[in-house]
Specification:
alpha/beta, homodimer, 28% strand
């Protein structure tokens, strides 16, 4: 500390001085002209006349505290942690609160340990360019209606949440269990409270008594507000509202309508699920900031939502401000409108400049997260579906992830269903224990013709999910996914293509440019197979097994009516 | 937790429902109509239709989160902790961040332990009506120029700060040591940082590099801002501004000018030093609130400064809001203008109603804090002062605690000085170890005629401070203070009167009504002895030994020039 104070008093040289920046002060909302003095990774002053070994000239650009992404599933980028960091950092992010929900559903705690280690391997000039607060996933599995690779019960949660590995408890999606005072749910929450750890929420449209109960449990955030009224009620009950800038799910524009000069401190920004294309092309929290400002939110409020507010919400004492004693995590941006990031400092080290991260990370590899797709041999006959009469069909809707139940009358032939026009088959094959468990149903509104496609990312248990109108092709897709150790696969007559997501069947070890190109190419192929407009060929599939979002979903155990919260038969009862 | 959630969901009866209140929501700044449901001391919901064993009808009054006093020296009330709690609670305070700086300067850590125990003894229907976060005093003694009853060096601070007894490190008044990177100061601060404990500041008008250095050390608050510009600079450097509503020192009106819609979250309220009369008659944080609103600060900002902001500043996670999962610490106030407190709940227990605390506390007594005035026999001749020529005189100024140096020419006679008109003697007698150390000087602007008065409260080492123009009377005052175990004493010819402050020589064991009456009476007597207008007879004395406030002060070691930060002779050098 002596050396920091000596540097602040100019009795000693600083390590770095950032000159010529308009320094945004998140405490006052004002911009001040001044130099930022940094010593040993800490800001020691804002002022003038500092000497330093390294001078950075910001040339009139704005200096902001690095951004904090309040909630993200890194796995959804399909990038390895190392590649994710390259994009996240160069878009100005300094800290992510990461919930490794996907990989833990596949690999258990070993998945979280892998994430931590992989991020820890991202080192550059003595610093980690990206700080990661890892949340212990609270809902593994997310519902009782599916087979996940791991189960974290109350007792395991009690044991794990105390570890330094975990910053807090991840989004508690199973809100019915919380408001129902389910013993195991309360055991998990109680353990986090006891350890003084933060608990994230997930409670779309929860209201009234149920919201009071959910907040009573000590859950502190929500990123699932469905509209600004929902936001207002969450705010009142003491939850921070996380404005989400995901790839599939945005709620910034609608939800920020609830923000005003008094309550802006209770809003924070997050990505939740964001793909590599969006991360590279549009950015992360920088993109969220520009959206907020574009819709008319004053820049000082918006910046607070990306920095100080999040730091306060999560108790990150050294983060979120450019002021003495804070970590020198600084993003230099062109202006306070588009927030284009020109340079990024982490603990006083320049880690990104001119649209590029300056570091590159050796991949950390772990056997624990490889070779995770374990299935029995799958044959075409496995996809035969002996159905006739009225059946429940999952209807997907364009531009969203909601589904509806539709009753369709079908006829059978040779022990298989004759698919009506516009209807295909959907199958979910358990892939963690090679149990052979397979859920099947019919799917409408997706539109695939003469083939099949599948992916090993299928929320939240990440079994194989395959859609198609050709049993042979569906079986072949399953085997391609097995061979690749997970990924995306497509079979269209003789044409076959697979893109491996060999890290837990969720993420690729390749560079982000390769991941973006490969997913674009395979998606373009899929689109030629007749997928409906407004439907993302692969990304719409990955939510069709998420048995917590209405109305009808398919898991390896069968068709789930989410509203009734139970498994239902595909055939309607007479 | 199950029972809380069951109550929130109305599956179980609540313990208490507060009906008919306008519930102020500190997160949104709005007032909502609704009932507050409480179970096991926690708020479990705001809404309607709750059943409970106990119903409280607020009859249209406002429900606010109980107030948090961010910084107070309880000793300055001259009340025992038990009596202090009666007044504090009935004025709506739920938590105080108390710095037992005075008693620790007299009794060491045992003084802090006494405060903790005494407050812990204040129990009522299973709750402590007042929560106390005790800070470990950082400056014992406050300066090297005085003899205190205890010394807490760096090593002791390292040992003590880790104890559960202490919430954080008290105001770091010795800012020259901090910015000078003094080894012992940094040892103390480093220990607090290491333990993750909050550090309070005290840095009047500190600016520029010095302020950067002070903030770099990790100090997070300041209650000594001298004007709104000082506030603005402190805010920028990340310090919370504590608006002070003390008895001698107010800075609310001036400093709140720096508050605006963006930065209001960085302001909090405190009392610092507040006497029993003010506490009873005007209140504590409720009074600060009414001052803020009177000067035009919107009530929602003001209330946040008294509740949520302070809770965030100090990391009091369960405090500062009326929302599920928060402690049911609630003040019912008549309106959002005068903030007259009608009733107070603590963890769901009604602890004050209709201007009265409902509890009464048995006194906790400890030998550690009694019989602390230890002096040798004092005689009239001890106050003889062999002076002639130009001497440095302490000049007190009305309506404040600043002093000035004035050079006065005097003549001597029989080994004693002949007091010029308007000048009396001032003496500080060491009273912890009976060393006989006595500092003497001349005092102007005070105005005492034909006697002496003295007090055992004398910041910050609390030696005996005695002013008078009669050596016999001064000696007699010293002996009266010794006999009383500390207190206030006055001798005017044959008339004598003493009021005992027998707890550490700082506080009375009597009821607050008695303390107020007795201090009023003895003060009225003193005033008849010719004390100047605008000078508080006793309260102006207690700051005359505080060797950290400019310009000239007297301690048991002699005259201190605070600007030069050294002891100087009374006689001017030729």
């Amino acid at each position: 500390m002596k050396t920091l104070i000596d540097a602040a008093m100019k009795r000693e040289k600083c390590d770095l001085v950032i000159k010529g920046a308009k320094v945004f002060n998140v405490f006052t909302g004002e911009t001040e002209e001044g130099d930022i003095a940094v010593k040993k990774g800490k800001i020691v002053g804002v002022g003038s006349g500092y000497e330093a070994d390294e001078i950075y000239n910001a040339k009139g650009a704005y200096a902001l505290p690095s951004f904090i992404d309040a909630h993200i599933h890194v796995e959804s980028s399909m990038l390895s942690p190392e590649e994710f960091a390259l994009l996240s950092v160069r878009h100005g992010t300094g800290v992510i609160v990461a919930d490794p929900h996907e990989i833990v559903n596949v690999c258990g705690i070993a998945g979280a340990e892998y994430m931590k280690e992989a991020f820890a391997h991202v080192r550059y000039r003595g610093v980690n360019p990206l700080d990661v607060c890892l949340q212990l996933p609270s809902c593994v599995p997310a519902s009782p209606f599916e087979t996940s690779g791991a189960v974290l019960n109350g007792r395991e949660t009690e044991r794990e949440i105390g570890r330094e590995l975990f910053y807090g408890l991840g989004e508690f999606m199973n809100y019915p269990a919380v408001i129902g005072a389910d013993e195991e749910a309360l055991q998990k929450i109680g353990a986090a409270v006891l350890q003084g750890k933060m608990i994230d929420g997930h409670a779309p449209a929860l209201s009234g008594n149920a919201l009071n109960a959910y907040a009573t449990a000590g859950i502190k955030t929500d990123h699932e507000c469905v509209n600004s009224d929902d936001c207002r009620e969450k705010l009142k009950r003491g939850l921070y509202v996380q404005l989400r800038n995901g790839s599939s799910a945005h709620n910034i524009e609608e939800n920020a309508k609830a923000m005003n000069a008094y309550n802006y401190r209770r809003f924070i920004l997050c990505s939740d699920d964001r793909n590599a294309y969006d991360l590279r092309t549009h950015g992360e929290i920088d993109d969220a900031l520009s959206r907020l400002v574009r819709m008319g939110v004053p820049a000082p409020w918006a910046i607070a939502c990306a920095t100080l507010n999040t730091a306060e919400c999560y108790g990150l004492k050294d983060k979120g401000a450019i002021a003495p004693s804070y970590d020198a995590d600084i993003a230099i941006v062109e202006n306070l409108k588009e927030f284009r990031v020109l340079a990024v400092f982490k603990r006083g080290v320049l880690v990104a400049e001119g649209d590029k991260a300056l570091f590159s990370a050796e991949r950390y590899s772990s056997k624990d997260v490889m070779g995770t797709v374990k299935i029995k041999e799958v044959r075409a006959d496995d996809f035969k579906f002996d159905l006739s009469g009225n059946v429940r069909v999952v209807r997907v809707k364009p531009n969203g992830i909601m589904t509806e139940e539709e009753i369709v009358s079908v006829t059978g032939k040779d022990g298989d269903v004759i698919l009506p026009k516009g209807v295909c088959k959907l199958a979910v094959i358990e892939r963690h224990f090679a149990s052979g468990n397979t859920g099947k149903c019919l799917l409408k509104g997706y539109g695939i013709c003469g083939g099949a496609l599948g992916i090993s990312v299928a929320h939240d248990s990440h079994n194989l999910i395959i859609a198609g109108d050709d049993n042979e092709a569906m079986a072949r897709v399953a085997m391609l996914l097995k061979e690749a150790g997970g990924g995306m696969a497509i079979v269209n007559g003789k044409f076959e293509r697979a893109f491996a997501l060999d890290i837990a069947g969720l993420m690729s070890g390749k560079s982000y440019e390769e991941v973006i190109r490969e997913t674009e190419e395979i998606t373009a192929h899929a689109r030629r197979m007749g997928i409906e407009d407004g439907i993302e060929p692969f990304m719409s599939l990955v939510f069709l097994s998420l048995a917590v979002i209405p109305e009808l979903r398919l898991t390896d155990k069968g068709l789930v009516d989410v509203n009734q919260f139970k498994i239902v038969s595909v055939k309607c009862e007479e």
